[in-house]
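Task: sequence in, structure out. Protein: Universal stress protein.
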Amino acid sequence: MSYKTILVHVDESNRSDLRVRIAAEIAKAENAHLIGAAVTGVSRFIYQDGNISASDPNLAIHLKFLRERAEKAVTGFKNIAEKYGVTSYENVISNDEAGGGIGLMARYSDLVVLGQTNRDEPSPSVLSDFPEYIVMNSGRPTLIIPYASDVTTVAKRPLISWDASRESTRAVTDAIPLLKRADLVQVAIFNPSSKPDAHGEQPGADIALFLARHDIKVEVSVHKTSTDIGNAILSLSHDLDSDMLVMGGYGHSRFREMIMGGVTRTILESMTIPVLMSH
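Result:
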C-alpha cells in the first residue's frame, strides 16, 4: 500500500508554504504525483440561478482579482515542489469555493493535505469548517497541518488514538504508508472498559498485531481518564513528543453545517501537531 496521488490545498495564508513542503516530502518519499490546488472562492453554483453573469463589469473585476490570487498561490507551490525534487506534479485552479473544489478533487487522490482553521486569519476563499467538511465528505484521509506550531518532522513518532471504531480503523489503515516509515508508533487507548466487546481481553493487542504484520514497530499504552479525552490525547502527544496524531473523525452534516463529535472538535481546535483523520 502506498500513496500515488497527493493533493495539497494552497492559498494566500502564511502557512501554505509549510503545507506544500510537508506534502512534497511525502510525495517524494512515496514516489507520488503531487497536485497543488488553489480555489477562487466563488461557488460554481453562483451562476445557476441566472441572476449573476460573469459579463457584469464589477463582477468581472472581482473574479479577476480572485483568479490572480489563486495563480500566485500555485506559483509558490511550483517553486517548492521543484526545490524539494518532486518529479511528478501539477497545479490546478478551481473556480469554486474550497469545500466544493478540493472535496471533488480529493476523491481522486490518496491523501489530502490542508491547514487547520486559524480564526485570527480568516480566508476569503475558505470557510471556517473547511477541514471538517473535507474529513467528513471527501472519503479520503486528510492530513491537517496546525497553524500555531512549526512542524519539522511528520510521522517519525506518530501517536494513534485507538478506540476500535470503524472511523479509527479507517484512519489507521489509511495512515499505513506513513506509519511504515516511523521510528516507533505509539498506540493509546483511553477508557477501554467503556467498549469491552470492541477491545477484547487485552486492549490494543489486536491492533498491535495488525500493525506488526505490516512491519511497523509499535507500543501500546492504556489510559484511564475522567477528563475530556480530546485534551488527554493532546497532553499525551506532548509528553511523548509525537509529531503526528492518527485518529478517526466523528460527526455529521446538517445542510452545510458540520456537527463534529466532542473529541474531534477538541483536536481540530487545539491541535499542535499534524493530525491524520479519516471518517
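Residues 5-145 form a domain with the Rossmann fold fold (CATH 3.40.50.620).
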